[in-house]
Amino acid sequence: MIISTALLVRERGARATSLDAILAHSGAPRGSVYYHFPGGREQLLREATTYAGDYVARRIERRGNDPLAALDMLFDDYCRNLESTDFRAGCPVVAVAIETAEDGPDLRACALGAFDSWRQALARALERSGVPAARADELAMHTIASFEGAIILSRAYHDLQPLERVRSELRALVEAELAQAKGPQ
Prior knowledge:
elongated, 9 helices, 76% helix, Tetracycline Repressor, domain 2
């Protein structure tokens, strides 16, 4: 149910993702929602946002000391997701981050936690590659902001070009930082 919630939120947003839709997507019986998630839909949304954040952070961490491989993994995954869903599937964390608490639970803290885990994972990879800590953190924040903006633009344009352009610019920036960290050869 958590994975189904994250998948539905990335296409519909948190407000438009109902328990009925989650149950239909996951195939779970109705009674299992309140058994496993006594906090109901709000708990499911929080856990799905945390799951999505942890999933991406783990994938970044698996790239170890190679921040360029982490970048390529992120961009490749989202290019595939966008193409396979006819540009409907964005990032579930962004979907949660942009919604306000007026019509439902305030999930922005969960989104912030996910973004922080990604930023920290990228910054660690950059640091392990020799980029100073403060600059690694700046570069990681810039990467996430650029990446998420490119996903939104790719969805709006119904085209991968924004993602590919941002990938190219970020790769050049990271390559320059890594070369500077290694010093003159």
